Amino acid sequence: MTVARIIEEQRKTTQSGKAQAGRWTLEFERQQPQRPDPLTGWNGSGDTKTQIRLRFDSREEALAYAERKGFAVHLVPAAPVSLKLQAYADNFR
């Protein structure tokens, strides 16, 4: 059975707004282990599903798609954002 991972996208560190917040990405977990290529030495596998990423506007849309296609789902919510407020003078203590 194909296992899909649904991840909540996090805000980029250089982004101050919340324009892309709340978007979800569906990607597939690896079915085959990676192995070194005998010619180049690079790691790889024959599993091409890991190259696919689907983006959804809500978690419900992503879950509905995975259920419709019959994927087992692993849901990964975003880590909570914690702001540390400090004064500029605190840098020199």
UniProtKB/TrEMBL annotation:
Subcellular location: Membrane
Superkingdom classification of source: Bacteria
Segments of this protein annotated with the region Disordered: 1-48
One biological process term in Gene Ontology: electron transport chain
InterPro entries: NADH_UbQ_FeS_4_mit-like, NDUFS4-like_sf
Entry keywords, A to Z: Electron transport, Membrane, Respiratory chain, Transit peptide, Transport
Predominant cellular place of this UniProt entry's protein: membrane
Compositional bias per record (Basic and acidic residues), positions renumbered to this chain: 1-12
Cellular component GO terms held in the UniProt record: membrane
Key word Electron transport present: yes
Pfam families attached to this UniProt entry: NDUS4
Full protein name: ETC complex I subunit
